[in-house]
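Lecture 7, part B: from sequences to assemblies.

Below are the input chains for today's worked example.
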Amino acid sequence: MSKVEFNKETGPREVFCGLTSIVWLHRRMPDAFFLVVGSRTCAHLIQSAAGVMIFAEPRFGTAILEEKDLAGLADAHEELDRVVNDLIARRPEIKTLFLVGSCPSEVIKLDLATVAEKLNKRFLGQVRFVNYSGSGIETTFTQGEDGALKALIPLMESSNEEKLLLVGTLANNVEDRFKKIFKNLGISNIESFPPRQSTELPKIGKNTKVLLTQPYLSDTVRDLKHRGCEIISAPFPLGIEGSTEWFLAAAKAFKINELKVHEILSPLINRAKLALESHKEILKGKRLFLLPESQLEISLARFLHNECEMDLVEVGTPYLNKDLMKEEINLLPDNTKIVEGQHVEKQLDRVRESNPDLVVCGMGLANPLEAEGISTKWSIEMVFSPIHGIDQAADLAGLFSKPLRRNQILTTKTLVTH
Amino acid sequence: MELTLWTYEGPPHVGAMRIASSMKDIHYVLHAPQGDTYADLLFTMIERRGQRPPVTYTTFQARDLGGDTAELVKKNIKEAVERFKPKTLLVGESCTAELIQDQPGALAKGMGFDMPIVNLELPAYSKKENWGASETFYQLTRTLLKEKVSSSEKISPLRWKELGRRPKVNILGPSLLGFRCRDDVIEIQRILSEQGIDTNVVAPLGASPDDIERLIDAEINICLYPEIAEASCEWLKRNFGMEYTNTIPIGIKNTIEFINEVHKKLDLPLTNKEELENKSKLPWYSKSVDSNYLTGKRVFIFGDGTHAIAAAKIAKEELGFEVVGLGTYSREMARQVRATAKDLNVEALITNNYLEVEDAMKKAAPELVLGTQMERHSAKRLGIPCSVISTPMHVQDVPARYSPQMGWEGANVIFDDWVHPLMMGLEEHLIDMFKHDFEFVDGHQSHLGHTATNTNNILNSDEKKEKNSKEGIIWTESGRAELTKVPFFVRGKVKTNTEKYAILRGIPEISDETLYDAKAYFN
Ligand code: SF4
Ligand code: SF4
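Predicted structure of the full complex, as structure tokens:
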């Protein structure tokens, strides 16, 4: 391991809770519905985090707890039953219903597992019920996906067929690209988790080789291991380097000759390098500060330093699984400062002190930093845009070069804001 | 339990944040888990604020629950006070903290600070955002003024005469995340000053705790947004005898009535009525021959109580529309909305459920919808033009230009905002004529005709083009499949670039690889 400096920080945070993952999970699995059992705050959060970009009736909703539900848990169970019945009557196309726990439902100890079990019996053959927690007292932002996937694992049948399982939500076009490249490498039995339909869960077993596409799936990985799956250790497929290593690790697990991998990837790599040039020109030598949000920060820092030549001031991450991030951390430059957790005020003090060229942060902080003359990039864009893979390296770099380019066009640094 | 897919109002502590963020020298310590910090983005993104809301979240986690969350609260209060040095501290809790009963307000009061502390108890499981804002403003006013209650005598609206100065009023209720509050305040202040009336304090927007203590220097209060200010106005009336106004100056008629009301209360002579009527273009624009086509247009109205009622009146009396639906999500204003609806012969819709609103909208089959951000979506789905008149709103409803809803200029803005979507009839025509043109890929539609059929037409014509490119270049299956994955708003550009690239390189067939090659080439 390189001489990375690990720090831990606690204090007031500025991070979404795990409920936010619903925003991309419901798009991935259009036959699923996410029912948050929570408060008006939870409802307001997903609506605000999803932007106000809801075009059709959304496939998520909140069963808002009211005074009378708090009084007696028995009533709360009955009420939830009623809400679920109404919902299913209204949306007969739902195949999987996720009951999503929140802070309030956890604090009052509403047992969603039991509710799900009962409902499973009642709606047998029609709708499947699973539960997980996306609460902010337990999970941040992307960890909601970890919870949702982990909850699906018990539903996955066993099979000893040899296969490659890509784990973590990807944009569809990226996923298609990956599958095509793997096929060219000679790995043809590839499945994705989560799948595009919640009912088409992959079968898993001791010949399943798991390749993670996202770094925030600690619990899911643990449970897949328990089911006998082999976890392929690799950096994450962000940037040319990460993606190449990622393909190589998979090839190795399938005993495919390394030369063949290089042969197939090298035209892609060359073209990606070419595409990366113009962004690198802008990013080179610029100082980057990543505030914790998505757990993608370490991979992004690695890409932006190693391939775009940015200098890393600080790399924040809401949670650090050193085991899963081992390969990534190995690739980081010496003396990288990693900070796990957050004390947002102290962190902002450090931002101001170090005066970086670009800060990656949550949506609540971006405009205030811009107003202070510091360019920013929303971290939430990383989970909404197709950024994985060699072909997307330049697009990924573009997400960071754009604010800087914009800054060059608009020369005014500090503005009066209203 | 209430099933919600979309909510019009946030929780009550978001209302409290609206008050805190609107003011100066105030800090709000909110006992809440980390995820509740999302609320900051309402201010920094929808309102494009350049400052963070003055809120410190205690960010308690599950592992803190077994231990001493009260200690965590105290630590955060101490840090916040040291760092931000507020003149007044608000302390409260969000829905989750309410359940663990740490009573942060009481804790703060026991910490020996010398600034006023307002302990906010906002029941999260029965109340909502506007109520929370109103309660916070009320508690703040009470806390800062309660010592002056006994010593002061009742304030006469005519006091200005005794004191030999111009009359002074307070403008109460405007807040961040309110609909166009910033500009309304400017407009109302301008109107009052033209009438010889000075503004003493505007609150909460832009006020400090010191300003709240100065409220009683004015003769009367202007209750500009009753959802937020009425409780405070009532308290000031009860304790200091301060009168407050009831008319909301939205639309020409209401603005004139408002001016009359203020004048009557202050015993001022009124400016000539005709002159007032000519202060806005709305009456003439509405009367001009071009507006003939507005006659009897059917409108459906839904929003907060204040804006919905005002909109109904303007629609009917000032634009000559027919109101075919009227409703609100503000239960506190249900009575008034019902009364207005009755006058218009429609049944008031009081609901929190946007799907119910959409159903009612569908049934009423209006030609124009005046609603919130959610009705904008519903209307779009139904292919009906829409203008947003109330919160909740979208970032595009916080325009850079001066665009109040109140007063003379407000009436001008309303005329434009409501009528422009209707005039797009001509534009729709043109789009239909030119839809086979290359420019009109599926992203380039008018904001109105977002209907499914429309999109399909465009997709089909797009597809045809893909098969026969002019230069005889063939798009292979994989190439075409890849192209459809490109977001519609750049698809046209990607397509042209790829073909350009193919011609340049003498590639006869475009595959997915060609597309990526071209992408890299033009990057
Ligand atoms: S569809 Fe239009 S109005 Fe609706 S959120 Fe998107 S940009 Fe705003
Ligand atoms: S942090 Fe907890 S209470 Fe807040 S929105 Fe998330 S789950 Fe709901």
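Note for the exam: Chain B has four domains: 12-129, 152-278, 281-422, 466-522. Keep this in mind when comparing with the next example.
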